[in-house]
């Protein structure tokens, strides 16, 4: 089995060997593919208790290697209190099943840091598609979070992220994973092979320790 380097995609047609992000309703596992499952903050307003039940049922599937994407988006979705409530449901599930959490956070890093401090999770939290500044990056890393970067990334934050806290993702991008890896390695900067080896090593521990 070749472990993916791409921790988050919505384009499995282009990135079959990535961790595929799906909602509980979309989840229909195909052989040799791996998934993260969650209710996106943009769908928080329409999410029903049934969606949370479905999420719980499907999250323990062996091909589900992470919980999410979930999170808080101040620009879209339900009122913040409701988004936070749904997020806490995902955190509880991540802790119960011992699967890492993939987070979508927009203008809500303060709130996330508060929830992290209060809940003291043991599982890894990865902020996907991180677009904040270097100071916010450092605050999140100090709190124990990892950061993931894709086709568009803030250079200062990327360079402020220690190699062992850094992940890559295609998300909605059509660029091949190799190209994303090379772009991020050049901007960091470090040899592409160094970045690839670092991710490969952690991929096993963080996402595939039970497989
Ligand atoms: Zn996404």
Structure description:
Strands 1-2-3-4-5-6-7 form a 7-stranded parallel β-sheet, with helices on one face. The chain contains 7 helices and 7 strands. It has helices at residues 49-59, 80-97, 109-119, 134-143, 155-159, 177-187, 192-206, and strands at residues 19-22, 34-37, 64-73, 101-106, 125-127, 146-149, 166-168. The protein is globular and about 45 Å long. With 211 residues, the protein is of the alpha/beta class. α6 crosses α7. α5 links the parallel β6 (146-149) and β7. The structure holds zinc ion. Zinc ion binds at residues 8, 10, 21, 69, 171.
Compressed to H and E, one letter per element, the order equals EEHEHEHEHEHEHH
Oligomeric state: single chain
Q: Please give the share of residues in helix.
A: 25-40%
**CATH topology-level fold name:** TIM Barrel
Major sheet: size, sense and barrel closure? 7 strands, parallel
Quick one: CATH superfamily? Metal-dependent hydrolases
CATH architecture tag: Alpha-Beta Barrel
Strand content: 15-25%
